[in-house]
Amino acid sequence: MKKEKILNKLEQYFTNKNYVRLTRKKGSFEGISTGFILGKSDDFILIQETDEFRILGYQIFPIETIKHVRYNKNDKTYERILKEEGLLDNVGLKYKIDLTDWKSICRDVKKTGLTVISECEHPKIKSFCIGDLKQVNKKSISIRYFNAQGIYDKENTTNDFENITKLSFDDHYANVFSKYAK
User: Fold this and answer.
1) φ/ψ (deg, to 5) at 55
2) pTM for the complete prediction?
């Protein structure tokens, strides 16, 4: 899908508050994100993710990674079911996030005090970092990572902005898991 067509569709579905399915690709990585577009800038998009008829947390990723935008009969049906289940009342951005660049995004996300998940989904790097966002630097962020047993590392983990393909926050998984981290 051409960039201009993608940008036009993103704008339309953002304005109309439609449920969308986004195919994201960077290098040999390809992934799907579904949900409602709640914010966008020239370079970034913020969605509220959905899965199995649940309204989940927020994801931010670069627009340049979006290769296809879908809003078809399947998505309209899914959106209708969410509406009839009364779940659309849970869709909305609770925080002010400046989507200018990764630095401004991370500064605002840090202010929420919520656990974050920073990912690089590229197969050669494949990083998943969950924890407290401790520092926002010029070209990177530092996260106090906790492992699958909920144990915090002694040192912060640095994630370079250029490698981040998705940043999630106010996510059910991260919020629940962080309550038990030590």
Assistant:
1) -90, 120
2) 0.92
